[in-house]
Amino acid sequence: MSDSEEHHFESSDAGASKTYPQQAGTVRKNGYIVIKNRPCKVVEVSTSKTGKHGHAKCHFVAIDIFNGKKLEDIVPSSHNCDIPHVTRVEYQLIDVSEDGFVSLLTESGGTKDDLRLPADDALSAQIKNGFDEGKDMILTVMSAMGEEQICAVKDIQGKN
């Protein structure tokens, strides 16, 4: 590769990987795992005994953290599997637009305007109704593998 070649990377992080490797035998229930390129929360792990061809196998049942779909995977327990970097950040709700986008106040005082209301109708309704009633609310945004989604909401107590 010559020095004259240019590289363009579309990335908002500091080059950090979206996943990290972890031995399948050490992944536990309520942990996270990547199955079919989707970040998932593990709901069930079962390990089979070592068979004729060597490896014990881990059977993972997991739920996609963004769309709620159930996914399964079987991995030899001694092999590495991908684990997503999952972060949760809390923002104060400023506005809910007509087209379903929310405006959030960041810790640095800026705004974050690129998130939609969650697909979960109950959570979405809770955010809209609370906003319409003039409540101050904190939204928890979960992000993993380049995706973000509102996953929880809470009222700020003591303000009217």
Automatic annotation (TrEMBL):
Keywords carried by this UniProt record: Hypusine, Initiation factor, Protein biosynthesis
Protein's UniProt keywords contain Protein biosynthesis: yes
Pfam families, sorted: eIF-5a (PF01287), IF5A-like_N (PF21485)
One example GO MF annotation: translation elongation factor activity
Composition bias type Basic and acidic residues, residue spans: 1-11
Signal sequence region: none
InterPro entries documented for this protein: IF5A-like, IF5A-like_N, IF5A_C, NA-bd_OB-fold, Rib_uL2_dom2, Trans_elong_IF5A_hypusine_site, Translation_prot_SH3-like_sf
GO terms (BP aspect): positive regulation of translational elongation; positive regulation of translational termination
Top-level division of the source organism's lineage: Eukaryota
Region annotation Disordered: where it falls in the sequence: 1-22
Modification(s) after translation: eIF-5A seems to be the only eukaryotic protein to have a hypusine residue which is a post-translational modification of a lysine by the addition of a butylamino group.
UniProt domain Translation initiation factor 5A C-terminal: residue ranges: 85-154
Similarity comment: family membership: Belongs to the eIF-5A family.
Primary role: Translation factor that promotes translation elongation and termination, particularly upon ribosome stalling at specific amino acid sequence contexts. Binds between the exit (E) and peptidyl (P) site of the ribosome and promotes rescue of stalled ribosome: specifically required for efficient translation of polyproline-containing peptides as well as other motifs that stall the ribosome. Acts as ribosome quality control (RQC) cofactor by joining the RQC complex to facilitate peptidyl transfer during CAT tailing step.
The protein's name: Eukaryotic translation initiation factor 5A
Taxonomic source organism: Eleusine coracana subsp. coracana
UniProt gene name: ga28640
